[in-house]
Structure formats: structure tokens, C-alpha cells
Design brief:
50 strands; about 475 residues; three-stranded antiparallel β-sheet; about 45% strand; mainly beta; flat
């Protein structure tokens, strides 16, 4: 049975066909997207269908693998069995002719392969096909050597033939059986490409021979110069040896030393010197030995001041003449020289206390016109110029402050006056001071003026009246 495929989208065209008896018929052609078929309408359902088709529900339908062309015939569908590849991405069949879609040139399509832009998958440039893939020649740059005899390339991988380890490949060299040429055991390759034994093997550097370099089996040594120390008092000689520096002598410990007593001059406190390994040992005078004015040896070779003395610029030792000195305002400093004290005094403008000044010779005294009191300060006499009177009988001065003695209130101090007990003199009660400085009672006290005695004035306790003259009427029929 032939497989019949129906299509979804219909393209309708008109064509003329001639079937048996030479009759011409109008036919309708239908084509469906995805799978091709043809349906043809005839005058009756019994008319025959074209080759490679069959009638289905009144239509002539192309068999599988065929498609209707523009003439209404069923022709082979060239894309029917098409399978997409990397280089051919699609197929479109029209009227039995296939049109293909090709991948762009250079598209990878396998090992070492690319599309050629026309649907074929070919080897990339410079590669050769081997067993379905394309590979480069891994031996292309191969050059035969002593240790690598040949090269074969399979699937882009090189396979080499190596010389065995008995093959010599240079001075002091042999192949390693894996294609490399290396130094024989115990030898080292040098700049000339050959291998040599290390001429410095076993060499131990020291201060004067600092390094050894081996070249082509010959040792060359590096020597320190003569500025290099190689021990106590020793230097290298520039040829690898170590010896004593100039002026030094080697002693039993193998080191070199200067004579530690060279230039020694005996004196009172250091009487002798002996040298060993550069160290001087001295003989010292004991502390009972005098070595100068106020000086004695200390038993260790030094000459110093006796206890309590100080060495001065003349090299002798003296007691401090200022010992115990305490500076004050008027004597500001003390310097001792050769046991004699010299003082520094403030001048007479320097104040040294309340009312006091220095005298320029180290003493502090009262300023002119002042007197020192019990508190040690100096004050002016607060009673200077005081004159005693009836009410202030005395004055005493203390620390510049005056204290007065006053008469009490029973003391008369003038006509009609008494002291107030605070040094003042005033009118007794009921009296008034008048121009003469005395105090009097008011002689007009109680006076009442009348027509004939019109006024009263009091002076020094005496009343003086003012009278009306005789023309003044002082009643009926009176004057």
C-alpha cells in the first residue's frame, strides 16, 4: 500500500491534461507545505489519475516521494530523503528540482575539517586526511640528530626513534634513550656545550680564598685583597694567604697583636707595664702615694683629689670655699677658686624685704627714713609730725600704722566743750559753737516776741533784744 500524505496549506493552480481517447480535461492541482501531493478534479470520479498518484475522496493524490509540478504531473521529490549536514543546512524542492542551503566557507565540520561553501566538508589548509579526520604533519620540522634517529606522524602525533644510552653525543655526553643528550654522571655542561668534571669539587671557601670557579675542568680561585681581615691583627695577602698586619707580632694563640706597652711612660701612680695578646698589665702605686697638691694615687693608676677636695684649673685640688653657702637676695652667688670664695652681690637698687634694700656688699637694711621693727621689716614712723592735744594725748607707731590715745568725755577742752573719747572736741549738750570757737547756751531760749520787744539775739550766752520805739501803740491809750 502506498502511503498517502495530506498537506495543510493549499496552493491552487490550473493546468490541461490529456487522458485516454485524447480528451482534454481541466484539473485542479493542490500542494501542501511539508509533504507534497496532488489532487485533480475531473468531470467524474472514475477518470484515471496521473502516474505515481491515486484517487482519494475525488482527488488524485501523488504518492510518497513525489510532488506535483506545474503541469499537473507527479514527479520525484528530490528533497524527500534529504538529511541535514553541517555543510548542507536545508533543501527546497520545486517541480522536482532540489535547491540546497550551504553553510558558509570555513565552518568547522570535523577533526581538522571545514565546509567549502558548496556543501562539501574538506580538510583545512595544510592538513591531510587520515582515517576520516584531517591532521597536520607532526614531523614536518623534524631534523635527525645523534639521539633522535627518525620521526613518523600518525593522526598529527609524532613518534620518534631514539638512540640508546651507549651513544656518545659530545665531549663528556651520552644520549639518555629518550632523545636528549646530557652530561655523563658526575660531569657538568659548560658554556662551550661540553661536559666536564668540577675542578672545584671539595673546595671550601675561607676568608682569603673566597671562591673557586671551574671551567673546562680547570679551577680558577678568587682571592680577597690585602684590605680584608682574616683574624685578630691579620689580613689577607691577595694571594690566598693570611698573615700579621704591619707592626704586629703573632703570639701563642695564633693571633697577631701590637705591643700594648708601646709608648708607655711610667709615672707616680703607674710604675710599670707588661704586654700579652695586646693587653697591657700595669703596676700601680697604692693610695698612700701623693701625686700632687691635695692629690693621691687611687691604686688603679690614676691620680685624683683627696676626699672633700676638687681639682681646679691649675691641676691641684682644693676644698670648696663656698661649701655651705646659701644664696640670698643680696648675695646671689659664690665661686671658689683655689680655696678662696668670691661672692656676687646685688646692687643697692635691689629690694630685699618690706622697706629694705641691699647695700651692694651683701647686706640687707632699711631704706632711708625707715626703722626695722620686730617682724624684721622696715616702716616709716606713722606718728611722725604728731602733736598731742587735750583730746588726743599720745601716738604710737607699729608696722607703719599709728595708734592714738584719746581723753575721755569728762575732759574739758574749751569753753562749753568736752572731748568725745575718739580724739575730737565738741560742744557740751545744749550748747552751740559760736564764731570764737567756744560753746554757749542760747540766751534767747524761751523768749516770746511782743509788740514792744520784737526780737532777741544770743551771742556768747548774752541776749540782745530789739525794742519798738515810743511811737508804737501797744494798747488803748498805750505806747
Amino acid at each position: 500500500m502506498k502511503k498517502v500524505l495530506m498537506l495543510c496549506t493549499i496552493l491552487v493552480a490550473t493546468a490541461a491534461f490529456a487522458f485516454g481517447g485524447g480528451h482534454k480535461h481541466r484539473a485542479a492541482i493542490q500542494s501542501y507545505s511539508g509533504v507534497d501531493s496532488i489532487g485533480i478534479h475531473f468531470g467524474g470520479e472514475t477518470d484515471p489519475c496521473p502516474e505515481h498518484s491515486q484517487r482519494v475522496r475525488g482527488l488524485c493524490v501523488c504518492d510518497s516521494g513525489y510532488q506535483a509540478n506545474e503541469e499537473g504531473l507527479c514527479v520525484t521529490n528530490e528533497c524527500y530523503n534529504f538529511s541535514e549536514t553541517v555543510c548542507i543546512t536545508g533543501c527546497n524542492s520545486t517541480n522536482g528540482d532540489a535547491v540546497y542551503n550551504y553553510a558558509s566557507e570555513g565552518t568547522a565540520c570535523g577533526t581538522g575539517k571545514v565546509c567549502d561553501g558548496a556543501g562539501s566538508c574538506v580538510c583545512d589548509v595544510g592538513l591531510t586526511e587520515e582515517g576520516g579526520g584531517c591532521y597536520g604533519n607532526a614531523c614536518e620540522d623534524f631534523e635527525e640528530s645523534t639521539c633522535i634517529k627518525s620521526c613518523s606522524s600518525v593522526h598529527g602525533e609524532a613518534t620518534y626513534t631514539y638512540a640508546d644510552s651507549s651513544t656518545s653525543c659530545g665531549v663528556g655526553k651520552s644520549c639518555d634513550g629518550n632523545g636528549s643528550c646530557g652530561c655523563n654522571a658526575g660531569l657538568n655542561e659548560e658554556s662551550d656545550g661540553n661536559c666536564y668534571a668540577d675542578a672545584c669539587d671539595g673546595f671550601i671557601a675561607n676568608t682569603c680564598t673566597t671562591a673557586c670557579s671551574s671551567s673546562q675542568g680547570v679551577a680558577t680561585y678568587t682571592y680577597a685583597d690585602s684590605s680584608t681581615s682574616c683574624g685578630v691583627g691579620k689580613s689577607c695577602d691577595g694571594n690566598g694567604s693570611c698573615g700579621c698586619n704591619a707592626g704586629l707580632n703573632e703570639e701563642s694563640d695564633g693571633n697577631c697583636y701590637a705591643d700594648a706597652c708601646d709608648g708607655f711612660i711610667a709615672n707616680t701612680c703607674t710604675t710599670a707595664c707588661s704586654s700579652s695578646q695586646g693587653v697591657a698589665t700595669y703596676t700601680y702605686a697604692d693610695s698612700s702615694t701623693s701625686c700632687g697638691v691635695g692629690k693621691s694615687c687611687d691604686g688603679n693608676g690614676s691620680c685624683g683629689c683627696n676626699a672633700g677636695l676638687n681639682e681646679e684649673s691649675d691641676g691641684n685640688c682644693y676644698a670648696d670655699a663656698c661649701d655651705g653657702f646659701i644664696a640670698n637676695t643680696c648675695t646671689t652667688a659664690c665661686s671658689s677658686s683655689q680655696g678662696v670664695a668670691t661672692y656676687t652681690y646685688a646692687d643697692s637698687s635691689t629690694s630685699c624685704g618690706v622697706g629694705k634694700s641691699c647695700d651692694g656688699n651683701g647686706s640687707c637694711g632699711c631704706n632711708a627714713g625707715l626703722t626695722e621693727e620686730s617682724d624684721g621689716n622696715c616702716y616709716a614712723d606713722a606718728c611722725d609730725g604728731f602733736i598731742a592735744n587735750t583730746c588726743t594725748t599720745a601716738c604710737s607707731s607699729s608696722q607703719g600704722v599709728a595708734t592714738y590715745t584719746y581723753a575721755d568725755s569728762s575732759t574739758s577742752c574749751g569753753v562749753g566743750k568736752s572731748c568725745d573719747g575718739n580724739g575730737s572736741c565738741g560742744c557740751n549738750a545744749g550748747l552751740n559753737e559760736e564764731s570764737d570757737g567756744n560753746c554757749y547756751a542760747d540766751a534767747c531760749d524761751g523768749f516770746i516776741a511782743n509788740t514792744c520787744t520784737t526780737a532777741c539775739s544770743s551771742s556768747q550766752g548774752v541776749a540782745t533784744y530789739t525794742y519798738a520805739d515810743s511811737s508804737t501803740s501797744c494798747g488803748v491809750g498805750k505806747s
